[in-house]
Structure formats: C-alpha cells, structure tokens
Write a structure and sequence with these properties.
Length: 215
C-alpha cells in the first residue's frame, strides 16, 4: 500500500540526445519507489515486445534510406502499442508512469528537425498516443555542443537518429523550445547545464507538488 495514493500520473521526459533525460527519469523512478508510490518507467519507442521490435528498425543504421514519413508512422505505431498495452493499464491502477520520450519527441524530431508538416505530425501524434496527453513533461535543455561532448565520453556508437549530426540536433532543440512556449502549463523547461542532483531536486519538487495536490 503506497503512503501517498495517486489517481494515476503520466510524466514524460524530453530533450536532445545525451541531454540527461534518461538519468533523470531513472532517478525520479527511484525517488517515488522510496516513497512507496507505485511507479513504472518506460521508453518510447519500446516497453513492449512489438514496440521494441519497431525501435530496432527505427534506430538501425542499415536503414539509412528510410523516408521521414515512414519514420513518423513507425514511431506512432510503436507508441500506440505501448499506450494500449502498458500506459493506460498502469494509469488505471493509479500508478505513476514515467516515460523516456513521448509524442513531443515526434514533433521535435520529425516535425521541426525533419521539416514534416507540423499539422499532420500533430494529427499523427493524436493517433499514435490514442489521444493520451502527459500530465507533466520535462524538457531537459542543453546546448548540442555539450550533449556531443557527453556522448563522446560515453564511447557508444551512434544510432541512426543520433548520427544525424550537430545541425540536426540544433533544429531538434529549437523544436523543443517552441513546444515549451506552446504548452507552458504542461511542459516544464529544465536547465540541463546544472549538476544531476540539482536538476533532480527541481523535478522532485514539481512532482511532489502535483502528487500532494491529488490527495
């Protein structure tokens, strides 16, 4: 039995590659579990066998000929499966769902960075999310140059999306900043240039306030 019963809360983390969002999502998950609040952590695309299979196709460097429209539809297909199989059931059980990326990524990457029609991308997002909207979205904002240094230190090979390069990441970042302006109540801009602990403290404070507002 959780010490703080929630009505179900959907939290997403966004940002350019290597911004630190995955680390912050994991830390928030640990924070909630220590407070005995039922929470699950997912990634988009992914989280289900079907969605993970689609993720493999999307990020495989062999698929360099993929059309941006195909890319868009594959992300939406993987997302729809995750929403139906994982997210909605968890929310129905009053759990906190923490997701590493959701449809704001599609707007930033396929809309703003790839240059696809934003209105069509928004319509696709509605289908792929099965009309589910996050309660809180954290955009971890860092300069692409800082993110590139972090990625290099990790020494991991770049996947198909990460390999798009610096200029592409600049467009993605600009897209996220536009999204923050468009949805100020839902989307919270977080300064990712600070320490991991400082960032997490701010995130925990925001989530705590929301959770206590539910009871």
């Amino acid at each position: 039995m959780s010490s703080l019963q929630t009505k179900g809360l959907f939290i997403t983390f966004e940002g350019i590659d290597a911004c630190g969002k995955s680390t912050q999502a994991e830390m928030l998950h640990d924070f909630l579990r220590k407070k005995n609040i039922a929470a699950i952590r997912l990634r988009d695309p992914g989280a289900t066998p079907i969605s993970e299979a689609v993720r493999g196709i999307l990020l495989d460097n062999k698929n360099h000929a993929m059309s941006p429209w195909t890319e868009l539809l594959l992300y939406e297909a993987a997302r729809a499966q995750m929403v139906q199989e994982s997210i909605r059931p968890a929310l129905a059980e009053h759990k906190v769902v923490i997701c590493d990326r959701f449809y704001d990524s599609t707007s930033a990457y396929q809309g703003y960075a790839r240059g696809l029609d934003l209105h069509i991308v928004e319509q696709a997002n509605q289908i792929g999310s099965v009309s589910l909207t996050p309660d809180i979205t954290f955009v971890i904002d860092v300069h692409p140059g800082v993110a590139a240094v972090r990625k290099k230190k990790l020494g991991e090979p770049a996947d198909r999306m990460e390999a798009e390069g610096f200029a592409f990441q600049q467009k993605v970042r600009a897209g996220y900043l536009a999204i923050v302006e468009q949805h100020p109540n839902r989307v919270k801009l977080i300064d990712g240039s600070r320490t991991v602990e400082e960032i997490q403290k701010e995130i925990q404070s925001i989530v705590d306030n929301v959770l206590h507002g539910q009871v």
